[in-house]
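[09:14] KT: can someone run the structure on this one? pasting the chain below
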Amino acid sequence: KIYFLSRPRRFGKSLLVSTLESYYEGRKELFKGLAIEKLEKEWKKYPIFYIDFNGGDFKDPGELKSLLVQYVEKWEGKYGLESKETLGVGIRFREVLERAHEQTGLRAVVLVDEYDKPLLDVLGEDPELEEEHRNILKGFFSTFKAADRHLKFVFLTGVTKFSQISVFSGFNQPKDISMNTDYESLCGITQEELESYFAEPIGEMAESEDCTREEMLLKLKREYDGYHFGKKLIDIYNPFSILNAFDNKSIESYWPRSANSEYLLRLLAHSQEKIIDYVGKYYSLREFIDYKEDVERPLPMIYQSGYLTIKGWKRKTDRFLLDFPNPEVKNSFLADIADSYFSGANTSKDSPDTWIERMQDALEEGGAEEMGKLLRSFLAGIPYRLHEKEPERHFQYTLYLIFQLLNSYLVYAEKEQSEGRVDCVVETDKFIYLFEFKLDGSAEEALKQIEERGYAKEYEMDTRKLYRIGANFSSKSGTIEEWEVIE
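[09:31] RB: done, structure tokens below
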């Protein structure tokens, strides 16, 4: 059997592979007290071939082939085979698997960790090297088909499942268990596991943060929970973040610091679509499962990398709702996108953090006029190249990024209502801001649209103060020309 599992980085894939390795090595003592201790009767020691791509840096030509040759040479020495350097590395690996079967009488186990790292390292940056890596991997993995009778179990992990016409096309397709309901919680930590096995560190964190255990559980859930990998919608905590939080006794951003979002930013930069085009929408499975290298649509890569996750499932249409898993991921990824998108912008005399703080103060205090001044200065500092082609789309995306970066607020872009879509809604504890934007029109037109389409009706029974804001952008100046507020 050949299996494939996709999970984001730092989600426990390597630990899972290591556990499988120990099991197939017959190391019964490591599983004492666990269910498998009684279920397994024989505890055979199979020949194991563990290929780990985690440690390699595959931006240099020849690095991938060199690593595979090193593995094969080591195994040839172990099983008494002469190294045949004139043969391809895949053919040599097949001979190793055959010899291991002959010598031990047992079929081989092959474990491949992060099979896609050689591709992700160069994705969108070096097409020629990417193609070279794809061909090398395709040739190497084709071994599984030729050596089928010598294989007991093959397990591959990775972040991304590339389309079946590429890397996996040389052998019988692996069974993809990434969204199989039996394996949704295979990696990561469930709510039950968190409360059962981590009671002590939860208590220590609660004491450190001066709150109750229940309050600490809510904080941890809000910040690190929210991943779902199938139709059961089992809540999964990010294991890397939660374990670091316990270790440091502090709720901070951990996983984004360890994850590399550069290749995703490159894909978004090359694509005509923005992150706003993906979040909060329903998709069929085929739209976000297989990444096809020849299509400039990075949604599968964003989902499988862990920056988006499943938030809902419609049984009738078999469609999945995708959105950010939690604030830790959302805030970090949007900050990276904003830094990349606004690269070279002289947004104001203030530092970006100071500007965000001033905007946050204005939102908290009902300072709708002050918000207009701050946005005007921000937009005026953005390079012309960003808004010359699609000014309306640019302004909408810019405001989306700005408001999303203002943490702790509910932000809706193009929120659907019965009479149409309002451009933007921002909700705080005390205030609701309804925005309608016009390009080369007038703020008066924008306010008129809010009234005529009844965008404020949804909030008639809300006790918070409502601001209707009409803004007009100039494609010539690249900033706000008119800003009018009705309370």
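[09:33] KT: thanks! The longest strand covers residues 431-439.
[09:34] RB: yep, looked fine to me
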